[in-house]
Amino acid sequence: MNGSMGFAPDVTVRSRGFTIGAVGAGMIMAECHLAAYREAGFRVGAIASRTLGNAQKVAERWDIPKVHATPEELIADPAVEILDLAFPPDQQPRLIRLALQQPQIKGILAQKPLALSLDEARALRDEAAAAGKVLSVNQNMRYDQSMRVLKQILDRGELGQPVIATIEMRAIPHWQTFLAGYDRLTLSNMSVHHLDVLRFLFGDPSEIYTAARQDPRTGFPHQDGITISTLKFPSGVIALSMEDVWSGPREEGFDSDIYIKWRVEGTDGVAQGTIGWPHGQPSTLRYASKTATGGKWVEPSWETHWFPHAFIGVMEQLQHAIETGSAPALSVADNVKTMALVEAGYRSIDEHRAVRLDEIEI
């Protein structure tokens, strides 16, 4: 069985009326944000980057009418209503604060991690609220098609009471060069996807235990190359998130087995699938439910991908929040809770123990 089966793997675009100013011209902006915005019919009015030449190339590719010499110049542009940031997390907070001072900017889409520390993330949350601006954080895995359909299955109760969930990553991310200068690597920059999506699926966990090791296959210093986190939730759900971000030898001719897999078991059913990003394919989901499928495995399908199509949902939810005056689905207040979970994971690594989330101030 295939087709959508009544599920909504992708969002319906409700709002698209604001002018976006894009800051950044690297892979995530050029290949994901702007590709998604073109498909959705979002209006990108300007772009800037740390390197003017890169911004000019991306502007030409995506027909962006205005190129600013600096991010600061773009932020001051009176035509820019939404600031879309794809910038390193050590430099992002300064640009967010500058945007909060601009009367014409109604909303900001920031990258994750929002900042390099939980303290900085809390401060940005409070400053955005004081400025009356909508600050949203690009936790785009919530808009992966398999995660959206899984959430719909859970909300329908088709798996019964959720019992255990796992996310297993053996894939090589696009490590930006700036990460080599940070002391935190995988938990902050890759596990943050999985920890956030587990919150999206099951609510806020009560505790986390994270084990990590340096990865001898990663070519720059770091403390957390490979991470394994176990989360417990008040509902009783236990979840495991594992990130192996090198995935075997990478020498030419070595056949690495690269994948991201997930599985959720409940009292009435099981769902499992893959994230298609490492291979440029759609994500997958198959599930069997005693109540909804007669115990038989069924497989909803779709043609869209996590990259770039999830970025339609991320920008759409921000525009809709601005248009309606409602809270964005990816609010900065909610993201601070994900940042707190990451911080608890690092405390767990440092102290070799499970850390309760109520130990972390949010």
CATH superfamily caption of the largest domain: Dihydrodipicolinate Reductase, domain 2
The whole-angstrom Rg is 20 Å
Class of secondary structure makeup: alpha/beta
Q: Please give the domain count.
A: 2
What percent strand? 15-25%
Number of strands: 14
Determine the mean pLDDT: 95
Q: Quick one: overall form? A: globular
Helix content: 25-40%
List SSEs in N-to-C order: EHEHHEHEHEHEHHEEEEEEEHHE
Distance between the termini: 45 Å
Major sheet: arrangement of strands: 13-12-11-10-6-9-8-7-14
The largest pleated sheet is described as: 9 strands, mixed
| Count of DSSP-assigned helices | 10
Low-confidence stretches: none
Question: In CATH's first tier, which class of the largest domain applies?
Answer: Alpha Beta
- CATH topology value of the largest domain: Dihydrodipicolinate Reductase, domain 2
Architecture (CATH level 2) name of the largest domain = 2-Layer Sandwich
Description of the structure:
- It is a single chain.
- With 362 residues, this protein is of the alpha/beta class.
- The protein has two domains: 19-139 and 312-329, 3-Layer(aba) Sandwich (Rossmann fold); 141-306 and 339-359, Dihydrodipicolinate Reductase, domain 2 (2-Layer Sandwich), CATH 3.30.360.
- Helix content is 32%, strand content 21%.
- It has ten helices and 14 strands.
- Strands 13-12-11-10-6-9-8-7-14 form a nine-stranded mixed beta sheet. Strands 2-1-3-4-5 form a five-stranded parallel beta sheet, with helices on both faces.
- Helix 5 links the parallel strand 4 (107-110) and strand 5 (134-137).
- Helix 4 (92-100) runs parallel beside helix 5 and helix 5 packs antiparallel against helix 10 (332-351).
- The N and C termini lie far apart (45 Å).
